[in-house]
Amino acid sequence: MRLKILYEDSDIIAVNKPASVLTVPDRFDPTQKNIRGVLRKKYDDIFVVHRLDRETSGVILFAKNAEVHKILNEAFSDRSIDKTYLALTQKPVEPKGVIEENIAESLKSPGRYEIKSKGKPSISEYEVLETYRNFALIKVKILTGRTHQIRVHLKHIGAPLLVDSKYGLSDSFYLSSIKRLRKRPEIERPLIHRCSLHAHTITFKHPIDGDQIHVKAPLPKDMRAVISQIKKNLS
């Protein structure tokens, strides 16, 4: 697995995580490919600063030493690191807003999360960038880092991800979903078959020299393909 490096210096490395790849080794199957494992083949020490869900693509940050790891962890804790995401969703009622709803793991469905008054405080800001009839491309900024936060919050406001097997509209998105095909292929390949969520940017002060660092991961091919086909067939 080749990783695209978005930023690197003697203390930090930021890579563009592919979808469907783990951030760290799986507890039960350490042979599965993961970003930390790939990086450790090249670097002696790699420290995980934050994580992305397996199906989420985009920019992810690692530290190269324990000192920087500690400083970046503290920066995440005090919310001085800004992260923005791009999401393909159902069109929300309001073009922008702040979602401030507590989140907790479901007691009935372990591994799923939901809005609960006694859950952990969670805040997300969103803004619609483009709309395509009933669909939208949304920018989301998270002010807290809860598990599945964006996916749960967007579902709560009636704008679930276009593709998300747990919280979204479906587990895959096909051309035939928006276009009548004269002859549908016997086996139709989905345009996208993972969460339609991408970690787009991360902005922070460098833990050593204090310089402002801004790293961006371009929208991936599968999400671009969906947007292209939606524009073409729903314009």
Structural account:
- The chain has one domain: Pseudouridine synthase.
- The model has no long low-confidence stretch (mean pLDDT 93).
- With 235 residues, it is α+β, with helices and mostly antiparallel strands.
- The longest helix is centred in the last third of the chain and has 14 residues.
- The chain is 17% helix and 31% strand.
- It is globular, with a radius of gyration of 18 Å.
- Strands 1, 2, 3, 4, 5, 6, 9, 10, 11 and 12 form a 10-stranded mixed sheet that branches.
- Strand 7 and strand 8 form a beta hairpin.
- The chain is built from 4 helices and 12 strands, in the order E-E-H-E-E-H-E-E-E-E-E-E-H-E-E-H.
CATH topology: Pseudouridine synthase
Number of helices: 4
CATH class: Alpha Beta
Q: What integer is the average pLDDT?
A: 93
CATH superfamily: Pseudouridine synthase
Compressed to H and E, one letter per element, the order equals: EEHEEHEEEEEEHEEH
**Residues in helix, %:** 10-25%
Low-confidence stretches: none
The total number of structural domains is: 1
The strand count comes to 12
Helix-strand blueprint:
Blueprint: E1 4-8, E2 12-17, H1 35-40, E3 47-48, E4 57-63, H2 66-77, E5 82-90, E6 96-100, E7 103-105, E8 113-115, E9 123-132, E10 135-142, H3 149-156, E11 197-205, E12 212-216, H4 221-234
Parallel strand pairs: 4-11
Antiparallel strand pairs: 1-2, 2-4, 3-4, 5-10, 5-11, 6-9, 7-8, 9-10, 11-12
